[in-house]
C-alpha cells in the first residue's frame, strides 16, 4: 500500500496548515480596513452584520473550499475535474490571486521603505523643515497656524507672508508619504517615471517570496511559525503603548459606541459581506491550494471554525490598537476622532505615522509598527503566490517535476513576472493604479466566483454526493453529522441568496472611483471594469471552449479520475476497478452495482475516448 503523502507533499504538521491559513487570512486589511469600516458603519453596531456574514457566508465557503482541496488533493484548477465544464472557475481564481499578489507586494514595499526610514534619531515625517515640505505643512507639534513665526520655515521664501487656517494645512506625515515616498503625480494619466527606491523595495519583496517558496510548502510551513504569530506580539506591544497615551479612551469609545440606525442601511451589510470575503481570502483559490497538501483525513471541520474565528477576533483586536492611537492624536489636535480617522493606505502611511511621530522614542514605535505590517503582508503574500504556483504546477506537472530545476526556475519566473507587472505601481502615478486594482479586484470577481462555486457544489455536483465525500474523509462522527444541519441550508440556500443580494446591492451602489479629491477619468473606470472581467471571462469562456472543441459528453459530470488521489483512500464508489484476466473484459465498480444518487450503472463504455487529464491514463476499452 502506498504510504500517505507519497503522491503529493503534505504539511509537516496540522499546526503548519492552521498557521498558514491564519497567515493567509490575517493580513493588512485586518489592520487598516476593518477598523475604518467599524468607524464608517456604526461603530460597535457593525459587528452584528460582520459576524452574521461570517457565520452564514464566510464559514460555509471556507469549509467548502477546504473540503474540495483536501478530498481531491488538487489545486484550484485541477480540482474542477469535479465538473470539467466549470474549469474556468479555477482559472478565474488564479487570475484574481495573481492580481492581488501584484498590488499587495507594492503595499509591502511601502512598509519596507518606512521601516528603514524609521531607523533614525527622529522619524523623517516629524517636522516640516525638509526639502519635500511645502508652506502648507503643519507638524503635530504646532498648535497654532504658522507663518513667519515658525523658525523651521523661515528659510523658505515661498512661505513668506502666508498664514494657513486649519482646513488648508497638510500634516508632515501626509507630505512625507505623497511628496517624498511617492512623489505622487497629478493622476493616473501622469505616471512620470519609476520611483527607483520603491522599485528596489518591491524587488526585495519578491526576492523574499521566492526564497520562502523555493521549496514549496516544505519551506513555507516553517516560515509561518514566525510570520503568523509574531504580529500578535507586536500588536499587543502597540496596544499596551496605546493604552498609556492621553485621550486613548475617546478613541476606544468612538470605536465601540454603536449607532444602531446604521443596521437599516444596505451598504453596511454589503460592506460586511465584502470584508468577510476579503479578510478570509475565500474564493481566490488559496484555501483549495493549501488544503490540497493536507492528509486525506485531516480535521478541516475544526479548522473551518477556528481560522475564521481567529481572523475576526484579530480584526476586532487590531481595532483597539488603531483607535487608541487615533484617540491620542485627536486629543493632541484638540479635535474629535472622526476628524482624524481614515482607512486603507491613508491610515497606515499617513494617520498612524503622524501619531507615532508625537510619541516619545518615536523611531522605536515606528519600527515596531511597520515591521508588524511587513510580517502581516508577507504571511498573506506567501500563500497568495503559492496559490498561483500550485494551480499552474498541477496543470503542467509532467513537464515541471522532472528535472527538479524546472520547478525552481518556474517559481523564480512567477516571482520575476509579478515584479515586472508591479512596476507601473511604483511609478509616480502608481498609487492611482494600486487603488484602482484594490477597488475592483476585491469585489465583484470574488462574489461571482463564490456564487458559481456554491451553485456547482450544491446543485450540479449535488449536496448529498458532496456530503458522502466529506464523510469518506472525516468519518461519520457526531460533530460531522450535526454540522450538516447547518451546512445544508447555508450551502444550498442562504449563502447563494446572500451573495446574489450583495452583488445586486454593489451594482446599485456603484460610484465612479475616486481617491481623495481626485476623480478617475472615464477610461480609468472602464479599465477597472476590464480588471473585473479579466478573471470572470474564463468562466463562460471555458464552458464554450469545452462545448465546441472537447468531447462534451458528460461535461457537467465528474471526470472518471475525480476522487481521492491515493488508492488507499478510494473506497465505495471510488474503489479501484476490478480488472479481469482478459484485457478486453468489462468490469463493474462495486459502488456502481448499487448506484448512489441515481448514477447509471456503467461498465466504462461511456468514457471511451474521453480525454483524461490524469498523469496516468484512465482505462479505455
TrEMBL record:
Gene Ontology CC: one annotated term: plasma membrane
Superkingdom assignment: Eukaryota
Entry binding sites for Na(+): 23, 25-26, 30, 279, 311, 376, 380
Positions of transmembrane segments: 15-34, 46-68, 89-116, 225-244, 272-293, 305-330, 364-384, 405-426, 446-464, 484-508, 528-549
Keyword Protein transport among UniProt keywords: no
GO biological process terms held by the UniProt record: amino acid import across plasma membrane
Cystine residue pairs: 128-137
Keyword annotations: Disulfide bond, Glycoprotein, Membrane, Metal-binding, Sodium, Symport, Transmembrane, Transmembrane helix, Transport
Membrane association type: Multi-pass membrane protein
Family matches, as SUPFAM superfamilies: SNF-like (SSF161070)
Molecular functions (GO terms): amino acid:sodium symporter activity; metal ion binding
Main location: membrane
Subcellular compartments: Membrane
Transmembrane as UniProt keyword: yes
InterPro entries: Na/ntran_symport, SNS_sf
UniProt region (Disordered), positions on chain: 602-621
Signal peptide residue numbers: none
Family statement: Belongs to the sodium:neurotransmitter symporter (SNF) (TC 2.A.22) family.
NCBIfam families for the chain: Na_transp (NF037979)
Protein name per its UniProtKB record: Transporter
Species of origin: Mytilus galloprovincialis
Amino acid at each position: 500500500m502506498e504510504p500517505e503523502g507519497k503522491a503529493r507533499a503534505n504539511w509537516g504538521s496540522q499546526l503548519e496548515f492552521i498557521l498558514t491559513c491564519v497567515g493567509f487570512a490575517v493580513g493588512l486589511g485586518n489592520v487598516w480596513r476593518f477598523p475604518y469600516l467599524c468607524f464608517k458603519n456604526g461603530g460597535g453596531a457593525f459587528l452584528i452584520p460582520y459576524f452574521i456574514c461570517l457565520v452564514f457566508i464566510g464559514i460555509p465557503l471556507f469549509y467548502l473550499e477546504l473540503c474540495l482541496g483536501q478530498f481531491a488533493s488538487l489545486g484550484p484548477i485541477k480540482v474542477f475535474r469535479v465538473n470539467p465544464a466549470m474549469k474556468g472557475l479555477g482559472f478565474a481564481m488564479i487570475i484574481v490571486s495573481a492580481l492581488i499578489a501584484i498590488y499587495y507586494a507594492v503595499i509591502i514595499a511601502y512598509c519596507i521603505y518606512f521601516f528603514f526610514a524609521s531607523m533614525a534619531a527622529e522619524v523623517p515625517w516629524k517636522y516640516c523643515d525638509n526639502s519635500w515640505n511645502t508652506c502648507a505643512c503643519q507638524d503635530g507639534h504646532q498648535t497654532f497656524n504658522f507663518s513667519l513665526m515658525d523658525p523651521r520655515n523661515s528659510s523658505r521664501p515661498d512661505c513668506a507672508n502666508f498664514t494657513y487656517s486649519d482646513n488648508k494645512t497638510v500634516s508632515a506625515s501626509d507630505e512625507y508619504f505623497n511628496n517624498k515616498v511617492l512623489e505622487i503625480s497629478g493622476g493616473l494619466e501622469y505616471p512620470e517615471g519609476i520611483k527607483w527606491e520603491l522599485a528596489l523595495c518591491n524587488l526585495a519583496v519578491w526576492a523574499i517570496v521566492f526564497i520562502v517558496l523555493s521549496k514549496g510548502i516544505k519551506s513555507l510551513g516553517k516560515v509561518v511559525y514566525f510570520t503568523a504569530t509574531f504580529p500578535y506580539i507586536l500588536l499587543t506591544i502597540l496596544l499596551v503603548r496605546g493604552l498609556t497615551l492621553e485621550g486613548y479612551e475617546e478613541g476606544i469609545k468612538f470605536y465601540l459606541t454603536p449607532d444602531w440606525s446604521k443596521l437599516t442601511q444596505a451598504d453596511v451589510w454589503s460592506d460586511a459581506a465584502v470584508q468577510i470575503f476579503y479578510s478570509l481570502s475565500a474564493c481566490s483559490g488559496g484555501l483549495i491550494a493549501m488544503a490540497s497538501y493536507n492528509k486525506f483525513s485531516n480535521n478541516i471541520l475544526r479548522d473551518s471554525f477556528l481560522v475564521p474565528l481567529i481572523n475576526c477576533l484579530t480584526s476586532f483586536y487590531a481595532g483597539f490598537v488603531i483607535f487608541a492611537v487615533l484617540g491620542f492624536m485627536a486629543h493632541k489636535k484638540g479635535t474629535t476622532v472622526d476628524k482624524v480617522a481614515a482607512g486603507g493606505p491613508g491610515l497606515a502611511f499617513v494617520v498612524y505615522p503622524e501619531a507615532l511621530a508625537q510619541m516619545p522614542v518615536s523611531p522605536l514605535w515606528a519600527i515596531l509598527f511597520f515591521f508588524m505590517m511587513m510580517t502581516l503582508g508577507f504571511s498573506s503574500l506567501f500563500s497568495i503566490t503559492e496559490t498561483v504556483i500550485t494551480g499552474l504546477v498541477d496543470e503542467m506537472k509532467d513537464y515541471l517535476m522532472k528535472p527538479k530545476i524546472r520547478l525552481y526556475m518556474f517559481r523564480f519566473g512567477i516571482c520575476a513576472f509579478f515584479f515586472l507587472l508591479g512596476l507601473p505601481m511604483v511609478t509616480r502615478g502608481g498609487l492611482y493604479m494600486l487603488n484602482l486594482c484594490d477597488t475592483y479586484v476585491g469585489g465583484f470577481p470574488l462574489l461571482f466566483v463564490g456564487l458559481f462555486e456554491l451553485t456547482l457544489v450544491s446543485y450540479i455536483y449535488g449536496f448529498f454526493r458532496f456530503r458522502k465525500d466529506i464523510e469518506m474523509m472525516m468519518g461519520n462522527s457526531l460533530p460531522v453529522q450535526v454540522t450538516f444541519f447547518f451546512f445544508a441550508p447555508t450551502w444550498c440556500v442562504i449563502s447563494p441568496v446572500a451573495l446574489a443580494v450583495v452583488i445586486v446591492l454593489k451594482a446599485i451602489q456603484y460610484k465612479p472611483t475616486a481617491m481623495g479629491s481626485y476623480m478617475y477619468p472615464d477610461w480609468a473606470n472602464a479599465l477597472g471594469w476590464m480588471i473585473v472581467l479579466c478573471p470572470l471571462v474564463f468562466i463562460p469562456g471555458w464552458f464554450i471552449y469545452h462545448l465546441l472543441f472537447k468531447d462534451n459528453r458528460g461535461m457537467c459530470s465528474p471526470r472518471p479520475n475525480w476522487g481521492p488521489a491515493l488508492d488507499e483512500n478510494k473506497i465505495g464508489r471510488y474503489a479501484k476497478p476490478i480488472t479481469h484476466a482478459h484485457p478486453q473484459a468489462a468490469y463493474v465498480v462495486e459502488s456502481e452495482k448499487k448506484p448512489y444518487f441515481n448514477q447509471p450503472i456503467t461498465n466504462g463504455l461511456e468514457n471511451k475516448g474521453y480525454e483524461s487529464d490524469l498523469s496516468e491514463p484512465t482505462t479505455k476499452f
